[in-house]
């Protein structure tokens, strides 16, 4: 004959020994932390994150026509694939005058891509595009754009790069323009 199974009781917790139990030695007992009384006359310091003065709640007051749009390398390439005139489609999107801006880092990135992207280079050298000089070393364009947008919140960032969009969404008050469904 087998052993009879004992049904387990539902929701039973293990008993814990209390801190006041006499079986505990004095050194094992935890001392209750002594709370200090706060001085009501003392000046309370609080750290509040600094937000730029251009942000009125979540609304960026520095943005207004004519819009300055920072253009990324892949935005130019995708506009060529979608057969879009860059400046005209920006104006159609925002219903206002747009000034596309291109940094030296983005220009260097397009030049590094070589002969395959010569059309993109010709578009980037368009006189309607405003050139922004870069003072930093290195030519990683994404870092350059994020740094510029963090300092000056007067730009709209035009990019198709998912990683760059994710980084820019963390910066409050900076809108993102991108191409989807050939628009």
Automatic annotation (TrEMBL):
GO biological process: ribosomal small subunit biogenesis; rRNA processing
Keyword Translocase: no
GO cellular component, one term: small-subunit processome
Main location: nucleus
InterPro entries noted in UniProt: Fcf1/UTP23, Fcf1_PIN, PIN-like_dom_sf, PIN_dom
Domain called PIN: residue spans: 67-166
PANTHER family given in the database record: RRNA-PROCESSING PROTEIN UTP23 HOMOLOG
Family: Belongs to the UTP23/FCF1 family. FCF1 subfamily.
Name recorded for this polypeptide: rRNA-processing protein FCF1 homolog
Biological source species: Sterrhoptilus dennistouni
